[in-house]
């Protein structure tokens, strides 16, 4: 691109991504499997340590399976909000208005559970993966951007602990669940907390030398 076109593209993408917000109120309107597959394929183009691509994405539309995940997640969340999360963490969450009830896990037409492969298994032989958290984090960011680009919304949901997801999703011991992303359209009355719209200015998030 010529420099002027590059700047226009960068500014346009910045403004477009500024419209993205996490949503907790979902419509149950269906979303085609092909859309979810395309978003995950985009995420899988992410760079990774030694190109080992240490991730696995489980896409779930089955209502019964979503209900089991919600029940298990809310059990962990009740312990967290009852004090397990600690006073400081709970106080930090207050402006966002979260709580132990997670209806989005059953209302949203899709759940995407992201797993990080702590090490690889090839023909039964264990081999090391490099920069796993960083690689999976980049892939998650690209997945969220792809979901937004498809005209959908999502929410980064991280019940703690999440070990129950391995059994529910049939994933092996070498994989660690890191995030649940409900994906769909926003409910007609969906709102975004005012506190969530406050972003740090560039002067606080960037240094130039």
UniProtKB/TrEMBL annotation:
Domain Nitroreductase, residue spans: 18-184
Keywords, in A-Z order: Flavoprotein, FMN, Oxidoreductase
UniProt key word ATP-binding: no
Domain of life: Bacteria
InterPro entries: Nitroreductase, Nitroreductase-like, Nitroreductase/BluB
Protein name: Nitroreductase family protein
Species of the source: Paracoccus stylophorae
